[in-house]
Write a structure and sequence with these properties.
alpha+beta, Endonuclease III, domain 1, Nucleotidyltransferase, domain 5, 5-stranded mixed beta sheet, elongated, RNaseH-like_sf, Integrase catalytic domain-containing protein, nucleic acid binding, Integrase_H2C2
Amino acid sequence: MSAVLKFISKSQKRELDECTIMKRAEIQLLRYAQTQSFSTEISLIKGGKYLNKNSKLLTLSPFLDEDGVLRVGGRIDVAADVTYSTKHPVILDGRNKVAKLIVQHYHVNAGHGNQEMVVNNLKQKYWLIRMRPTVKEISKKCMLCRLKRVKPQMPKMGDLPSARVAHHQRPFTHCGIDLFGPMEVTIGRRREKRYGVIFTCLTVRAIHLETVSSLSTDSLIMALRRMASRRGWPAHLYSDNGTNLRGADTELKKAVAELDEQTLQTTASIYGTKWTFIPPASPHWGGAWERLIRSVKVALKVVLKERAPREEVLNTLIAEVEAIVNGRPLSHVSVEVDSKESLTPNHFLLGSSSHSPQMGNFDDSDLFLRRQWRIAQRLADMFWRRWVIEVLPELIPRQKWTTELHKPLQIGDLVLVVDPNAPRNVWPRGIVEEVFTGKDGSVRVVQVRTQLGSLKRSVARVAKIPLDV
């Protein structure tokens, strides 16, 4: 509009300054929008007649100013130090295209802020019919605001894997492995870093802790061999792939990312162990061991009295923390006097909780090999029966993600790859190239093509960008 007025002024050889042209263009657009929305009211006002009782402008006491723009009459003419536009704002219909463009302008100038801020700024100059619905509509259609609001849509929580409910098997048959640290130790007059390795039995929730001096693949394999020598080789190992170690420092993330997955899998396969790596940046897939790492860290803060103990002291404290965590109850703790002792991971490892005496009284007649074997089998069976009765039912409910509320991701969807450690405005965008479903048919993992390359992510780290309004 301003360009048209500038052309007209030049044609008439009347040069007008830019400010005057912009002001006239604004008046022309406002009058055009008001004529489209309030033609009946404008005709009645020009004719000096009263508005109809069903008119939307009846309560506003509208009038036409000297430029022919429809404004609110209102009741605050006597207010001091208030601008004319605030006393008599321009009336517009929020459904009009011009009004929507004005709202969009204020929305952008407000930094895509909350809707009340935009409404307040608009009221200083304009009175929109359906103001808040219009502001809400503009915010909903704004692509930048969509990117700010979008978040991953979690599918229904899947069933527990067989490793979590595999009873009557040796502890650590199904095992999760992760690293934590670093921890400083004193060697002579210098300090060195040590890292912890946690092995978690996915069934009875027992842990085994080892320390390593470096984060190389060889150190991790030796820690696995030490654990297997004491607990037996796992049939199945689960771990992350080194890019989703929460709470670890930069060195830990970098070093674990360099672990050779192929070497680990080859070494494990020699002993009949299958090694499975969870998707990148999906710590909730490893919640079974992530939660126990937190318990280990809490216990370490209690027992560790110095910042950099000697290595022998650290190894002793690590063993004590292992016993503390393995002594926690797995089921409800009864306060009745004659109730049974609560089931703990140590019952499956030691035959009793860590602070309990040996169960029962035995004499020389119990030294027969066959009877000893039967006693051991009976105790193990008793603990497993209690586990099935007391612990297994507690795993039935879904604590969250109880329903499939949203449409699953599909090939071709435009998505944001979520990075909790980076600002939202630098999250990479991409296109879903491939989807991977779980046993229940729900999409759990997707392959996303981005400018950074192809990324494999859990749906918890991928947010779909809505393109339809």
